[in-house]
Amino acid sequence: MVAVLVVGPLPAALAQTPGSLDTSFGGVGFVSTAVSTGAGDDRARAMMLQPDGKIVVVGACDNNFCLVRYHSDGTLDSSFGIGGRVNETRASTTLTAYSAALQPDGKIVVVGNCIVGLTATMCATRFMADGSLDSAFGTSAGWTLPNVTSGGDVAKAVALQTDGKIVLADVCTGFASPTAADFCLVRLNNNGTLDTTFNTTGMVTASFGGGAVNQGANAVAIQTDGKIVAAGYCDAGTYDNICVARFLANGTALDGTFGGGSGRVVTQAVASMHNRAYSLALLHNGKILVGAECGSATCGARYNPDGTLDASFATGGVFGPGGTTSYESLSGGLALAFDGSFVLAGWSNPGAGIDSRRAFYYSPAGALVAALISPLAGSWYIDGQARGWSAAVMQPDGKVVLAAPQAQSGDSTKGDFLVARYHGFPSDARNCSLDIDGDGVVLATTDSLMHARIALGMTGSAVTSGITFAPNALRSNWAAIRTYLVTQCAMVIP
Question: How many other C-beta atoms are found inside a 10 Å radius of the C-beta of residue 314?
Answer without folding.
Answer: 22
